[in-house]
Amino acid sequence: MAHSHSHHHHHHPELKGKNLLVSILLNIIITIAQVIGGIVSGSLALLSDALHNFSDVLSLLLSYTATRYTKKKASVKRTFGYKRAEIMAAFINSATLIVVAIILMKEAIERLIHPEPIESTIVIWLSALGIAVNGFSMLLLKKDADHNMNMKSAYLHLLTDMLASVAVLVGGLLMKFYEIYWIDPLLTIAIGLYLIYMGYDLLKASTKVLMLFTPEAIKVEEIVKVLSTISPVKNVHHVHIWQLNEHEIHLEAHVDFHENISLHEFDKVLDEIEEKAYHHFGISHVNIQPEYGKCESDEIIVQD
Fold first, then answer.
1. Nearest alpha-carbon partner for 104 in 19, 191, 35, 198
2. pLDDT tens digits for 38-53?
3. 203, pLDDT greater than 50
4. How many CB atoms lie within 10 A of CB 183?
5. How far apart are CA 100 and CA 50, in angstroms?
6. Which of 121, 128, 150, 221 has its CA 20 to 30 A from that of 239?
7. Which region, left, alpha or beta, applies to residue 117 given φ > 0 means left and ψ of -120 to 50 means alpha?
């Protein structure tokens, strides 16, 4: 069995960690302020926003912990290290988005049935503060969110909370000037639906990585076709392709040869396989089992 590692990514977990810490502190402050303001004003939307902000704090703490763990080295007990820590964080964070949404919507429906007057001035000022805090936190994380599932999950928590604060602000203004108090729970339901919409795609994507599914952009048949063009290769079968994390895609396969080549010749073929796998499909780790005249199935996919 031959294998190869390719390292083509350079990340800065220290900077990500600092940005996350700043966002955590800011969200703790806004959460405390919104809880107090929600109780004083009687605004369910403001308390809902505070609950979501608290989930932001937990998600950011989880993302920060995952970022720290990814730096830990592999060991004999953890041969892959903690490379999947950020995927786990993304999965948990996206799941909590959906859970929080369901809780908010349940409370909002009860408030729609039994509407209550609300002190709108507090709602307006605290929702404006929430927009400012979450907007600044989003700017800190945006760059990393573009290429990191863990950071994207934290970013989405902040984005949805900023939009929630915008909705609460609009509701506060409508309540202050038009006394439309039913708008508060209605906006909460709208926020909940949006949270489910945003969380679902990330939950699905992180689940696929954890379940070792083949990345959607990669077609197994196409890989087999490309690798089979290498001259000594007879066929490629028993193929497994999975993502270890967002930046490492692994290929494991059996390669049957036309003739009994030497180990030195196989090394040259392996180099070519690695080159094609990376440049054509972005695969960073190749693990090949060479075979000659071995009587077994040549099916591409084999269920062990």
1. 191
2. 888 877 767 777 777 7
3. yes
4. 22
5. 11
6. 150
7. beta
User: pTM value?
Assistant: 0.76
Question: What average pLDDT does this structure show over 229-255?
Answer: 93
Higher local confidence (pLDDT), 9 or 16: 16
Is 72 in a helix, a strand, or coil? coil
How many whole angstroms separate alpha carbon 238 and alpha carbon 249?
Answer: 17
The token duo for 15 is: 């900077």
Q: Determine the Cα–Cα distance for residues 184 and 111; give it in Å rounded to an integer.
A: 9
Tokens standing for residue 78: 């953890």
The DSSP secondary structure of 115-179, one letter per residue, reads -----HHHHHHHHHHHHHHHHHHHHHHHHHHTT-HHHHHHHHHHHHHHHHHHHHHHHHHHHHHH-
Strand 285-291 relative to strand 249-257, pairing: parallel
Helices 149-178 and 85-113 pack at an angle, to 10 degrees, of: 20
Torsions phi, psi for 235 (to 5 deg): -160, 160
pLDDT at 224 over 90: yes
Quick one: which of 153, 159, 154 has its CA closest to 133?
159
